[in-house]
Design brief:
The structure is a homodimer.
Chain A lengths: L4 E3 L9 E6 L11 E16 L7 H12 L3 E10 L5 H19 L6 E8 L6 H14 L4 H10 L8 E9 L2 E10 L12 E6 L5 H12 L17 E6 L13 H23 L7 E9 L2 H13 L1 H8 L6 H8 L11 E6 L2 E7 L2 E2 L4 H8 L3 E7 L5 E8 L3 H8 L4
Parallel strand pairs in A: 4-5, 8-9, 10-14
Antiparallel strand pairs in A: 1-6, 2-3, 3-4, 3-9, 6-7, 7-8, 10-15, 11-12, 11-14, 12-13
Chain lengths: 410, 410
């Protein structure tokens, strides 16, 4: 097994990748709102996208690029306006963005991904968008700072930029994988998360890259929820430019496994960051289910707990109200015997059992309250039905979630 | 078609029904927390219950009574503690309650329904419960006031008692149907609502009563959601004592239809009251879907909108952020063409179209904001795919929802 080492940076960490962030005044003044990722060499790509019927225009554009373009080299992202529910005008805007970026970067329009996040139902201001793209192309750089600039430019209600990079070995060659992502409302990924972009210099076939991504999201991005609303814009893209010089990964085996492990490290890190920085969140909630009969059961049960508004409000209130978590397991759709479920609260300050044999355990409310007051709390359920397990991540429900979403547009 | 006339009262409106409410100190002091419904004559019964795997003990007890007892005559309800996740001790408590009530009322224990609402995971205090039952039995009365006392005693975070009674005609006889119910958190009924009790003097066979109830809840109680959490205790019971003297309804036909219409009037009224009085709610949201391909599609689409946290927060903020409603339609699981959806906001102050032909309409934000600020707002979606329609009811998401649920137990 290859060792995975976390290193500095994000999307510019891998060889040949440049980035930039800028203020384009898309919807607000004085706020970084456009980002660019660029690879000096053509990239193999893979992507997963929202399952929402109301797909935003950039989602439709990017799906086409992943499926039909022989390669890609750039991603243009804006925040402020989502370019969703915008009809033909919205699609035309995607093409204009890609053509503008292609011209500025010297690559075909069909090698440019576009992504948007923000308010649904508004049209993008084409002039400002194109001016922004030209500025991004002129300012792009390989530096760590340039990567951070890009990560900051895609934030909406996020409180911190989210990026990571890791180094690992494939066939004796050093390989780097980096990425950035943003939340933090309308997050209930079904295929992938809101916006996440991964860049790597590994050499890998398109088929194996897509397979790795598809199988990974099931236990990473698809296991988080902030508010149960599956966005119109969910997009996860990976660009692999092959500059690490390893022998191409074109089948399963040790090298493929090494890549998958690094990928999972990065996606899980990002998923947890997204969940913990959910709109208004004060705590990361980890819901871990063990002893389930099937893997799918484990996933459904784990996710049901972190989606429960009442569980989320209880964590916000530091109230060890375990009945709400049992209730959420109970309505998940998975059949089980309530008499056989053990429920625990776990944090750095300890682990206590709160429920077993069909009723409350004799635990200390004080201990339970202390654990549930930690910034990262784990709710652990042992179903005693088999050996499968899964983990899901969410956040608490606070006054600030309501505040942020009651006047998001103003 | 029989005329349905709303009359004064609730569970005591129909002939032969008595009720009472009292303070039993179940969990809190100085608060009405126990209620009794009693029929002087044996009743045919029907019920629907939570689909949650973690069924509360009273739910298991009541299902047994509906399925196995030849008749029933009483319902004992407490608030404060839900008797859910309480194992064998919880079931023993149900039996003790029924035996105590049976003794005090002179009926078999197997003719007594029990119902509980409140905190999950705590055991009920048997002594106080039995003292409460004896007090209720002694104080029961046929008056309007007694019915209101009962409706008040089952409230938890409800802000108003919820009851209704109607009068209608079956085969030339005056029939009365009344009821009471309570919310107001953990409401996402799947089978029925939290707690709702209907009493009627109609003469009807058990089969037809159960059929009427089962078919009704699909478009009444099952179409509301306050927070997406399906309770462990959801219970809807109907008791029919036959004292109206009509010829027994034992098959479909005019008489059965008259009863079904009255039933739907009452259940829809109650469902809307529950939704509008959701925890922390400042507005009732009605989501109406027309032009759907199938009835089931219409229901799923309508319900998806009222379950969306982002839609709920937008209504609280009086923000006509229609993209969130389209987004909720889009992730509902129903396939449709976004280009063909028309979306409207409707209130007493008018109706405006906000979306059509795949993009935003040219509407006045001021008009939209005025409509969405009303205490009852309708979000209307025309899918243009067929003739089926459905309506769902929910409420906005406010700071108070978080406040109420962050320290519910304290």
């Amino acid at each position: 097994m290859s060792t995975i080492r976390q290193i500095e940076g994000g999307v510019t960490a891998a060889r040949g990748f440049m980035a930039a962030g800028t203020e384009a005044g898309i919807k607000y003044k004085g706020r970084r709102d456009m980002a660019l990722i660029f690879s000096t060499a053509p990239c193999v790509t893979a992507g997963t996208f929202t399952s929402n019927v109301m797909k935003a225009a950039p989602v439709i554009w990017d799906k086409d690029i992943v499926e039909k373009s022989p390669f890609a080299q750039a991603v243009v992202v804006n925040s402020g306006i989502a370019n969703a529910c915008t009809g033909k005008q919205g699609m035309d805007c995607c093409r204009a963005e890609a053509e503008c970026a292609g011209l500025a970067l010297g690559i075909p329009a069909e090698a440019v991904f576009v992504a948007s996040t923000g308010v649904i139902g508004m049209q993008l201001p084409k002039d400002r968008l194109e001016a922004g793209i030209r500025k991004l192309a002129a300012n792009k750089a390989e530096s760590v700072e340039a990567g951070l600039d890009a990560a900051k430019a895609i934030m909406t209600t996020d409180t911190v930029p989210k990026q990571i990079a890791v180094s690992f070995t494939v066939g004796g060659k050093d390989v780097t994988l980096g990425g950035m992502c943003k939340g933090s409302g309308m997050i209930h990924p079904n295929m992938c998360t809101m916006l996440a972009f991964l860049t790597t210099d590994v050499k890998i076939s398109k088929e194996m890259l897509q397979k790795a991504l598809r199988e990974d999201v099931v236990d990473s991005f698809n296991m988080i929820s902030i508010d149960g609303d599956t966005s119109t814009n969910d997009t996860l893209l990976v660009l692999a430019n092959g500059l690490a010089g390893n022998e191409e990964i074109s089948s399963e085996g040790e090298e493929y496994e090494a890549f998958c492990q690094a990928l999972h490290y990065v996606t899980t890190y990002m998923a947890k960051k997204l969940a913990g920085d959910g709109e208004g969140a004060t705590a990361l909630i980890e819901s871990r289910v063990i002893g389930a009969a099937t893997k799918e059961d484990a996933r459904i049960l784990a996710k049901s707990v972190i989606c429960s508004s009442l569980t989320k409000a209880a964590v916000f209130g530091h109230d060890a109200n375990f009945g709400r978590m049992l209730c959420a397991l109970g309505y998940s759709g998975v059949a089980f015997d309530p008499e056989n479920v053990d429920l625990y609260f776990q944090g750095v300050s300890g682990k206590i059992q709160v429920f077993g044999n069909g009723q409350a355990c004799d635990y200390s409310e004080e201990d339970a309250a202390r654990i549930i007051s930690e910034p990262e709390v784990t709710i652990l359920a042992d179903m005693h039905m088999g050996d499968e397990e899964a983990t899901a991540w969410g956040c608490d429900l606070s006054y600030d979630y309501v505040k942020i979403n009651a006047d998001y547009r103003s």
